[in-house]
Amino acid sequence: MTSNRTEYSTRIRDAVAHREPGRSLPAPFYTDREHFDLDLAAVYGRSWVFAAPEAEIPEPGDYLTVDLGPWSVIVVRGGDGEPRAFHNVCRHRGSRILTEERGSTGNIVCGYHKWTYGTDGALRHAPAQPAGFDRSCFGLRPVRLRAVAGLLFLCLADRTPEDFDEVAARIEPYLRPHRLAEARVAVRSDLVEHGNWKLVMENNRECYHCDGHPELLRAYFPTFGYTEETVPPPLRPVYERSCRADTELRQRLDKLGVPHALIEEADGRATGFRVQRSALDLAGESMTPDGTAACRRTLGDLPDTRLGDLSLHLQPNTWFHACADHAVTFSVRPLAPDRTLLRTTWLVHPDAEEGTDYDPGTLTKVWTATNEQDAALVARAQRGVADPAYLPGPYAPNEHQVEAFCAWYLDRLREELQR
C-alpha cells in the first residue's frame, strides 16, 4: 500500500511539473479517481467555496445541506439572524444528522439517538447520559462561513486562505447595489453534467464555443475574451458595436457611482477572481431573449434598468451574473471523476410576485437553455479526454481565462503535494 501511494505521488508530481502552459490538461486530470480525490482535498477542502445565496435561508431556523465530496455541511440561520455552518456529523457516534437538502427547524435533531443541537451548534439534549456528562464539550463542529453581500462562502480547512478578506472587500462594492441579501429565490435548478468538474469550469471560462448558445447570444455579445488585436474579422462589426455599448454604459454607471472596471486576478493568488460590469445587446436591460427586463421590480438601489451585466467569477466553483432586475448564481460541486452537479439559482426583488412581476419561463429561458447546451458540450469533452488518442491541445487567445483557471488549479495541487 505504501509503495502504491509513493508511485501515485510520483506520477502526479511529474504530471503537474511537466504540464505545458497554454495547453489543456493531460487526460488523468479529468478521468482518474486518484486525481479526483486529490482535487477534493487540495481544492474543495482548502479553498473558500461558494455554498449558496443568503436568500436560500431567509428566516431563523432555515437550513440547507451542502455536500462536497466526503463532507456534508449544514448551513443554518440562527435565532439571532446570523448564518452559521457546521459539519453534518453527530457528536455521539458520527451519524449524518440532517438528510434533507433544505428545510426549517427549531433545533437540529439527529434521527439516530435524538441528540439535539441548537442552531448555534450547542448540544442541548443528549438522552440517558451519566451524571457529570458535560454537554458543552460536544457541540457541532463549526465550519468557517462568510457572507459577502448576500453570498455565502464556506471553507473546510483549519487554516483558510489569507487573502479572502481582501477579495471580499474588492468585490463587495460591485455586488452591493443589488442588495442580494434581501433578495428572494424565484427558481432553483439542479443539473448533473457528465463530465469532470474542471471541464465544467473551463467551459464557463471561454466564449470560443458561444456560437452554440443562440439564446445567450441574443443579449450577450459573443466577443467575451477577445481584444482589439485578437477579434476575428467576422466578429469585428459585433465587437465594435459592443465597444460603443460599453462606452455608453460606463458613462451611465459613472454618473450613478456604480463600479464597473475590470479586475482580473484569476491566478497567482489563493482566491482567484474576476469581476466586471459590461453592456448587454438589444434592449440592454437583462439576459433575456430580447434583452428587456424579466422582472418589473429592480433589485436593491438600482434606479435604471439599462445597467448591463455584472459578471463575477471566483475560483474554484462559481460564477454569477447580476442585472438590474434579477441575479443568477451558479455552484459547481464534484460528484465523481466524470459527474458534476451544477446548481443554478435565480434571485429577484423580495416583493416580486410570480405571474405579476415576472414569468419564470422568461426569467430562466436563457440560462436554462445555455446550461443544457453546455452540459452536452462537457459530456462530449469528457468522452474525448477519456479516449486513448487524446493529447492536450493549445488554447486560443480568447481562452486565456481557461489557462488562468488551470494555472490556479495546478498551484493548489503543488501546495497540497508539498504538505
Structure description:
It is a single chain. The protein is α+β, with helices and mostly antiparallel strands and 419 residues long. It has nine helices and 17 strands. Helix 3 packs across helix 9, helix 5 crosses helix 8 and helix 5 packs antiparallel against helix 9. The longest helix has 26 residues. InterPro entries: Rieske_2Fe-2S (IPR017941), Rieske_2Fe-2S_sf (IPR036922), Ring_hydroxy_dOase_asu_C_dom (IPR015879), Rng_hydr_dOase-A (IPR001663).
Give the topology.
Elements lengths: L1 H17 L9 H4 L1 H12 L4 E5 L8 E7 L2 E7 L5 E5 L14 E3 L3 E2 L6 E2 L5 E3 L16 E7 L2 E5 L8 H12 L8 E10 L3 H8 L11 H4 L16 H21 L6 E3 L7 E6 L30 E6 L3 E5 L4 E10 L2 E10 L11 H26 L14 H18 L2
Antiparallel strand pairs: 1-10, 2-3, 2-5, 3-4, 4-9, 6-7, 7-8, 9-10, 11-17, 12-13, 13-14, 14-15, 15-16, 16-17
Helix pairs in contact: 3-9, 5-8, 5-9
What does this entry show, briefly?
The protein is an alpha+beta fold and 419 residues long.
> What spatial form do the alpha-carbon principal axes imply?
globular
Q: Mind telling me the CATH superfamily name of the largest domain?
A: Naphthalene 1,2-dioxygenase Alpha Subunit, Chain A, domain 1
Please work out how many helical segments DSSP would assign.
Answer: 9
Structural class computed from helices and strand pairing: alpha+beta
Strands, count? 17
Mean pLDDT: 95
Here the CATH topology of the largest domain equals Naphthalene 1,2-dioxygenase Alpha Subunit, Chain A, domain 1
Strand residue content: 15-25%
Quickly count the domains: 2
Residue share in helix: 25-40%
**According to CATH, what is the class of the largest domain?**
Alpha Beta
Low-confidence stretches: none
> Going across the major beta sheet, what is the strand order?
1-10-9-4-3-2-5
Order of helices and strands: HHHEEEEEEEEEEHEHHHEEEEEEHH
Q: Describe the biggest sheet? A: 7 strands, antiparallel
What gap, in angstroms, lies between the N and C termini?
Answer: 20 Å
Radius of gyration (CA) equals 22 Å
CATH architecture field of the largest domain: Alpha-Beta Complex
GO molecular function: 2 iron, 2 sulfur cluster binding; iron ion binding; monooxygenase activity; oxidoreductase activity, acting on paired donors, with incorporation or reduction of molecular oxygen
Keywords: 2Fe-2S, Iron, Iron-sulfur, Metal-binding, Oxidoreductase
Domain Rieske: 48-154
Cofactor: Fe cation
